[in-house]
Amino acid sequence: MRALCWHGKQDIRCDTVPDPKIEHPRDAIIKVTACAICGSDLHLYDGFMPGMESGDIMGHEFMGVVEEVGPENTVLKKGDRIVVPFTIICGECDQCRRGNFSVCERSNRNKSLADKVFGHATAGLFGYTHLTGGYAGGQAEYVRVPFADKTHVKIPDGVTDEQVLFLGDIFPTGWQAAVQCDIQPTDTVAIWGCGPVGQFAIRSAVLLGAKQVIAIDTVPERLAMARAGGATTIDFMAESVVERLNELTGGKGPEKCIDAVGMEAHATATLDSLYDRAKQAVMLETDRPHVLREMMYVCRPAGTLSIPGVYGGLLDKVPFGMAMNKGLTFRMGQTHVNRWTDDLLRRIQQGQIDPSFVITHTVGLEQGPEMYKTFRDKKDNCIKVVLKP
Amino acid sequence: MAKRRNTRPDALAQGLGWFSIGIGLVEMLAPHALARGLNLRGNERLLASYGVREVATGIGILASRDPEPWIWGRVAGDALDIGTLATGLDGHDDRREGAGIALAAVLGVTVLDVLCASSLRARRRARAVPPDYSRRSGLPRPPEAMRGAARDFEVPADMRTPEPLRPWVPAA
Ligand SMILES: NC(=O)c1ccc[n+]([C@@H]2O[C@H](COP(=O)([O-])OP(=O)(O)OC[C@H]3O[C@@H](n4cnc5c(N)ncnc54)[C@H](O)[C@@H]3O)[C@@H](O)[C@H]2O)c1
Ligand SMILES: [Zn+2]
Ligand SMILES: [Zn+2]
């Protein structure tokens, strides 16, 4: 089959690789009908996440039709249409039972490696480094889904692939980002980053009833899409984010702040951005926490920082004293996808939201490598790429 | 050779690229015969230098990602060619006829060059206009009308703000 494989920094290729096979009785093999490129894939593409090996199949946002099931999988059958969450879940461990799916205790098959790096292992993820299990990803014609009897969302007829594909990651991610803010009707929610995750966080915050939603980015078409979803926008290259946020909140700062940017925050004209660039270049720091610093600074005391943006390693000059004294609450993590999907699928079916609004490019798998670049560089007004194998 | 999408202006540009190389080679390799035919004797070196220009432009068109500047280069070259050929129309030599035919041919190619360059430019400009995402809300009604539409959702206990950190709302 054909699949997009990682071969090194900024080197993704559409290779021919062996078809996946059932390896465990709970597995399923699915034929992928649609998959997408995520901002998280860019961290691998740009070489910021450790733990990739040449030839690894990329992709953790995908859906398709069940082709084959293992003998112990009595939940799925050939022909079922499913979206696959990017977090692999056993459904039975302590964490899964609490709904903390992204830290499932059993799905990461490289547990001892992850234990060493993270202290305790987190869930297995598709196409996302050997720290999270080294599972083959979904930017491919076929995928093996481990623990497939739990790791899926069944999709009924009557909704298109484009409407439900993002249930596997970015829609629940934007949703959880907003839910973690426990939004009150009096809240201002400020969202850094108007990429796909930011876009869903904006809509989620509006639907959950925030008084005011403010979105921050610098890419004009992303800001336009943010305004379409109900956000007031700030261009971080053209204005002072802190000043504008204070202005828009009567000088008090937003109660809730969402980081939908992560470790690759763009250098702004500020001193700390230059500092991060320099330290990253000499490998004294792995991530660029500019957005985090800004959130800690501007957030209203006793406020909440919700961090769906991915960080990989060590952060420097994080003003923890400020955060402590202001009594800020931090909530973060990979998304507990299956915790939200039933509810969100129902909202899609009821027409409360149509997630396909975010798709700007639909191409074949073989165009994947060039699309990574287009998406990364925000060329051609690209916001979200869907690949059809 | 750079791979390009094969749309019509691209195909035309490619044709013009090969044409440039062909003509250029003739000018470079047989300037004497050409000068005779075009009533331009004494201008052999000029013709040979035009040949170098043509070949370079042709390679530029075929090898670059964006042929547009090279095609405009061809248009400029056409003007030079026309000027030079026009001098061949002077006098009573019966070779004037050759120059006349060549001039007509160059005028024809010039039309193609201008067409190609301007359609490449039009396409570039069309691409530069950002698409309008201002209606991509994903919501069935304006955001203002959708505010709080999901208030039926119950935030799970582990994600709720602790009571002391909640905003104080005075009793009505
Ligand atoms: N927690 C999860 O489970 C989860 C799931 C999916 C994605 N993510 C993460 O969410 C983040 C966003 O993903 P995406 O797909 O939207 O990616 P993206 O790269 O398309 O979006 C990031 C956006 O942030 C903007 N940005 C950069 N620097 C900024 C700054 N200083 N201030 C404000 N905005 C800035 C960029 O212009 C860009 O539009 C990534 O870190 C990704 O890894 C997390
Ligand atoms: Zn993702
Ligand atoms: Zn589990």
Automatic annotation (TrEMBL), chain A:
Residues 25-157 form the Alcohol dehydrogenase-like N-terminal domain. The lineage of its organism: Bacteria, Pseudomonadati, Pseudomonadota, Alphaproteobacteria, Acetobacterales. The keyword Magnesium does not apply. The keyword Transmembrane helix does not apply. This is Glutathione-dependent formaldehyde dehydrogenase. Coiled coil: none annotated. It comes from Siccirubricoccus deserti. Pfam families: ADH_N, ADH_zinc_N. Keywords: Metal-binding, Zinc. Its cofactor is Zn(2+). One of its GO terms (molecular function) is metal ion binding. InterPro entries: ADH-like_C, ADH-like_N, GroES-like_sf, NAD(P)-bd_dom_sf. Signal peptide: none annotated. It comes from the Bacteria.
UniProtKB/TrEMBL annotation, chain B:
It comes from the Bacteria. Residues 131-172 are annotated as: Disordered. Keywords: Membrane, Transmembrane, Transmembrane helix. The chain crosses the membrane at residues 12-34, 98-117. This is Cyclase dehydrase. It comes from Siccirubricoccus deserti.
